[in-house]
Amino acid sequence: MTAEINAIGGTATELPDGIQINPVDSLHGSTWHTYEDHRMATAGAIIGLRVPGIVIEDISVVSKTMPEFVSLWTNMLEQSA
Questions:
Q1: 30-32 vs 54-56, strand pairing mode
Q2: In the chain, what is the straight-line distance between the N-terminal and C-terminal CA atoms, in Å?
Q3: By CB neighbour count within 10 A (0-12 exposed, 13-18 middle, 19+ buried), where does 30 fall?
Q4: How confident is the model at residue 76 (pLDDT cuts 50, 70, 90)?
Q5: How many domains is the chain built from?
Q6: For residue 30, which of 5, 40, 41, 66 sits 20 to 30 Å off, Cα-Cα?
Q7: Quick one: pLDDT band at residue 17, thresholds 50, 70, 90?
């Protein structure tokens, strides 16, 4: 998670018991790597709501726990537009 946050211009540091994320105003789009982990794909999708240009490397990994995620997400975004 810290690698991906830092890759989009954030400042995140791993701690022994979690992550410290400091606020910044300069996040930018990039490929968000999922590491074959549905939680990373979901986190990237949520960050992409606020940061233009986030591209999820492999959104299909969400099918492990929520096969309908992509269609639900697409429908939600279409309704909010």
A1: parallel
A2: 29
A3: middle
A4: confident
A5: 1
A6: 66
A7: very high
Kindly report the three-state secondary structure assignment for every residue of the chain. CHHHHHHCCCEEEEECCEEEEECCCCCCCEEECCCCCHHHHHHHHHHHCCCCCEEECCHHHHHHCCCCHHHHHHHHHHHHC
The number of angstroms, rounded, from the C-alpha of 71 to the middle of its chain's C-alpha atoms is 17
The whole domain housing 67 covers 2-80
CATH classification of the domain holding 72 = 3.65.10.10
